[in-house]
Fold:
Amino acid sequence: MCGIVGYVGARQATPALLGALRKLEYRGYDSAGIAVLSGGGLVVEKAKGMLQVLEDRIAGREISGCLGIGHTRWATHGEPSDVNAHPQTNTSGTIAVVHNGIVENHQRLKEWLQSQGVVFRTRTDTETIAHLINYYYRGNIFDAVLKTLHKLEGAYALCVISSDFPDRLIAAKKENPLVLGFGRGENFVASDVPALLEHTREVYYMDEGEIAAVYGDHVDVFTGRGERIIPRVQHVDWDVDAAEKGGYEHFMLKEMHEQPRAIADTVKPRIIDAPGGGRDIFFEELPGTDFWKDASRVVIAACGTAWHAGVVARYAFERFARIPTEAETASEYRYKNPILDSRTVFIVVSQSGETADTLAAVRLAKSRGARVMAITNVVGSTLSREADVRIYTRAGPEIAVASTKAFTTQLVCLYLLALKAGFVRGALSPEDYQKGIAELLAVPDKAAEILARKGVIQKEAALQFNKNKVFFIGRLFDYAAGLESALKLKEISYTHSEAFAAGELKHGPIALVDDRTLVIALATQRALFDKIASNIAQVSSRGAVTLAITQDTSGYFDQAADQVFVIPQVDDAFSPLLSVIPAQLFAYYCAIQKGNNPDRPRNLAKSVTVE
Ligand code: AGP
Structure:
């Protein structure tokens, strides 16, 4: 939630800040603003709406100055408006702050500041920070920020400038991400790496509680206790293009097309030749595999799409490894009194590694003695640092709010773990283990084959996008894939869509079915073809239009469903990796038909760092 940037150097700050903010709009886009030190004073420009509104507002005006901060907002306290947009300033306008996170004790701090005579102009928690810094300011901006941080409860990533200090900005981080970018004679601060890539590939992911004084020619980093540390600068080798649309109309379309590559990048490095012949699964991140032998159960906690990956994995762990497995939504789990023991393998899945509910589940599990294994896409994320072991999906940056390549790469990580666990525990024969590995290695080509037929799905979307409800039905793995398919459709096309376990239809949901309903049957498990065909018949006879996504090539579903989309042949247990792709495409093309921007769905943000 919210993207923040900072620049100090010899160039004009305004274009550098606006360019960097463009790359962070996925983090929030209900308002934007910049503050630049110009002619000895801070010039602050803010506007409700997307970044373009701000750019239009300042177009043609010269805001010259080489020090500045910027912000793109997803409102938490105070509705989206010009005044609530960041930067927020102290009363005299000499200190400006951009902030990502929530100051949980801001009401108490505000009342105290008011008792000291401070007049507040906004309902934001961030304004409290600006006034507090002003309160503690005795001629040293760094000390004032440090003292302020000690008063704040909750999460923050923030960047501060003062008109008294034209050569530096102050950056601080707790629970929300912040990256320093090192240039030549110029330095940067940003919430995420894509904002920096145009300028530098040398970055430092700030650690919990750290505070930095960033100058044009050097950076001083300190712990929250004021001890100086040497930042471990990393080289980022992503292409600049990898963070851009690369010729596709939308990030989501691009990211769906990246799935064959992303899946291959995630699977292949983990497959090695086994000493005795055949292949083996090896995660260099995992300290041995004996823990699988002792495991009594697996608990997977995650949110949204990542939780759906966990639901698929639940079936995979039980099938391949015969370990009882639960998939829990982290937002619920954090309020449970969980039963955990040292034999529970606790797995957390998160694309961003910054989801507040997921991190809370991690902290709870750790406080109960569980060792946490994280699957995440973001190196240096909070989750990656807090987990005991971490496995990275190699999806590359995912910009579209609706997750696609993150889902399929999370899935392949979980399948690799389930296969390995099954093999180590003796639940999976060497032959079936080899077969499973071969299935995963073959997925990228099959995914590419589906994407090459996207025109078929596009036509179907053009016919069906106006249905007022869409239900996905399926059993077991197909039901899990249906959950993700329904989420995609509702997120970006705003169509009411739900997934139902097909056998549950008759227990209630079938009452909803009428001639304005589209039912998409996920029918990939051979042993269940007859069952799902009956369900299709039941909804057809109540007026629904039906589409079957299947791997049957015999024409069996041609009789049952109005339309059939055949995915490449795959072992039933791996089918969600493929069946979800036509569903992603369907959601995308329905959104396009409705004139929605699939990259920026209403009311949603990419990284949900508040509860
Ligand atoms: C996916 O399309 C959603 N935007 C959302 O459900 C997301 O998966 C969820 O917020 C979890 O995010 P994470 O993977 O970054 O933790």
